[in-house]
Amino acid sequence: MTATSWDPALYLDFDDHRSRPFRDLLARVGATSPRRVVDLGCGPGHLTGVLAGRWPGAEVSALDSSPEMVVAARERGIAAELADVVDWAPAPDTDVVITNAVLQWVPSHPRLLPRWLQALPAGAWFAMQVPGNFGAPSHALVRELLAEPRWRGSVELRGELAVPEPAEYAELFAAHAADVDVWETTYLQRLTGEDPVLQWISATALRPVRDALPADDYAAFRAELAPRLRAAYPMRPDGSTWFPFRRIFAVAHKA
Fold this sequence. Notes:
Keywords: Cytoplasm, Methyltransferase, S-adenosyl-L-methionine, Transferase. Its EC number is 2.1.1.144. There is one protein chain. The chain is of the alpha/beta class. It has a seven-stranded mixed sheet. Strand 2, helix 4 and strand 3 (80-82) form a beta-alpha-beta unit. The relative contact order is 0.17. It has a single domain (8-253), classed as 3-Layer(aba) Sandwich (Rossmann fold), CATH 3.40.50. The chain contains ten helices and seven strands. It has helices at residues 8-11, 15-26, 48-54, 67-75, 109-119, 137-146, 166-174, 196-202, 207-212, 215-232, and strands at residues 36-40, 59-64, 80-82, 94-100, 125-131, 179-192, 240-253.
């Protein structure tokens, strides 16, 4: 998984918007009395507690590859473990796995999913969601700017094929689980503030750019990107900005 750094506070600037797909995903998991629930890529741990509240009798495990996120989770009282999802394997009593907005950072995840599903016990649930907006202006404009002479070669970002399409996930899960539920949702987020889309992607899509460039260069890159994002996502008369936010969901229930 990527070794670049995370800013938990910046990530949580849009906590309500970022948390909604997690709750929609969790609503499709029908487990009643799981023994162990795993938050695979727990981030700052702000949603791990939701799992504990849903299944109070379960052992809840949380892990993340970012030291910054693990520290933030532990500050919330979550016993988060520093570990890479690529190296993770389910324990024999793992009955629920939730991975929320994580696997898009793991290029090998289509190969990992069958391994994980095969290792889960009968009756287990595996639920994931990833962004499906890598072709949207919020990402395409970043790649276009990075292709210009000043920035060319400074960092390589994921392209439009960073995650499979829903049908591909459906086929993959169907080969290893009895019941499969795959869907996509585009949330039309109402953002406010100055350059809200730039602020949104600063915590996620721009993270590799921030880590690759010196501070002054990163500030200059953002300054060049800002007007392009404003043109793609214009501010409405009331000061708000509509931001389409496409997500892909998949839930598998083993027989």
